[in-house]
Amino acid sequence: MKKTFTNGIIRENPIFVIMLGLCPTLAVSTSLFNAVGMAAAVIFVLVFSNLVISLMRKFIPDKVRIPCFIVIIATFVTITELFMHAFVPQLFESLGMFVSLIVVNCIILGRAEVFASKNKVSLAVMDGLGMGLGFTLGIAVIALIREILGSGSIWGFKLSLTYKPLLIAILPAGAFLTIGFLIGLINIQKARMQRAGRK
Amino acid sequence: MALSRELITIFLAVIFVNNFVFMRSLGLCPYLGVSRHSSSAVGMGLAVIFVMTLSSVATWMVYRHVLIPLHIEYLYIIVFILIIATLVQLVEMVMEKTSPGLYRALGIYLPLITTNCAVLGIAVLNMNTFFNAQGPVPGSFIKCLVNGIGCGVGFFVALLLMSGIRERLEFCEVPESLKDIPIAFIIAGLIAIAFMGFL
Question: Does A183 touch chain B (CB under 8 A)?
Fold first, then answer.
């Protein structure tokens, strides 16, 4: 069970390794606060949809499983959206339509199809948590880099008074460049580890 | 006259100024997945234009004539995603029967479109822009339609640009660690910078 949990965080990190759920990652990682808010919403939806799908896996006919999964996921996304609208309106405002787009986040449907529909409830919940935290890690790293470069702050706190922000980093173009170079770095590290393993 | 001018503005703006891929970072999974070759990029692009146009019309009708009269606007996520999934399935079946040639060209891309967040994105965006608290703004139907077509064309342009560059890249010496996906992100970043010229 522990392995299921840690699997999603590092070895099968949804963003950097399997590369799912990229659209929200790039769109809302303009600041650490937005990124963490988005990640919390994704964890909630992921854990509960995994839980429900795993509970119902014996009753869902194989042929209509995808529409069933989508309806379950959409239900939890609606709950999240209404909750955010009511309790954290400021966050809801800055995430915009990306809250409702969680429903087409490939991570969630992917985990439902690959894992939750085939495993027992406790494992499915663990997998949801692990994948969710892996997503959080990925989006937080990207957001941290972009916020430091683009606004010269972390979580809204200014780091230096004389720093001139690099505006491009918080624009979509900066998101593409950041994730491109990050995946490049990860590939270098992977190749190095493989070489070390061979020796 | 004023309306037609407004429609042209909407159409051009959604292709260049607010391009879904480069400015809103939506629809990235298919964008990176099928942009390796021009032929698949054209197929996917046409399929996206087709589905986006149809889903803009269908979601407008359901939102305007079902959800608003029944006061269940908050269920829009579930309803929209089901409409899109059904529509894609329907288009696939009709196309298979009526035009096998077109089906062979676009068929394999159609199932992928259901989870393309740009398609749900355009439905949500239409709802946010062309409906206010009192109901639809004047001419909202035609505006939704034009927005849908324009958005599809924007996606098509983005795919075509990218696939052209990536075909050339096969003959270039790309650093080992940046091959394939990372370099595609970096290119997307550079194109996005170019698109900022339209702002």
Answer: yes
Phi, psi at residue A19, to the nearest 5°? 55, 55
Instruction: Please tell me which residue of chain B has the smallest CA distance to A97.
Output: B124
DSSP letter at B172 equals S
Instruction: Tell which residue, B137, B115, B124, B133, has the closest CA to residue B48.
Output: B115
CB contact under 8 A, B29 and A106: yes
Is B109:B44 a contact under the CB 8 Å cutoff? yes
Q: Do B29 and A22 touch (CB under 8 A)?
A: yes
- A181/B contact by beta carbon, under 8 A: yes
> What counts of helices (H) and strands (E) characterise chain B?
10, 2
Q: Is 90 exceeded by the pLDDT of residue A175?
A: yes
Rounded to an integer, what distance in angstroms lies between the CA atom of residue A49 and that of residue A140? 23
d(CA A34, CA A28): 6
Q: How many domains does chain B have?
A: 1
Decide if B115 touches A, using CB distance below 8 A. yes
Kindly report, residue by residue over A55-92, the tens digit of the pLDDT. 999 989 888 888 899 999 999 999 999 999 999 999 99
Contacts with B188 from chain A: Cβ below 8 Å:
176, 180
Mutate: best of A16, A29, A176, partner B, most B CBs <10 A: A176
Chain segment A119-132, per-residue pLDDT in tens = 999 999 999 999 99
Q: Model confidence over B157-176: pLDDT tens digits?
A: 999 999 999 999 988 888 98
Does A74 contact chain B (CB < 8 Å)?
yes
- Would you say residue B10 lies in a domain? no
ipTM: 0.88
**The pair of three-digit structure tokens given for residue B74, joined into one six-digit string:** 């908050």
d(CA B139, CA B67): 19
B38: its two tokens: 């021009």
Rounded to whole angstroms, the Cα distance separating A37 from A15 reads 17
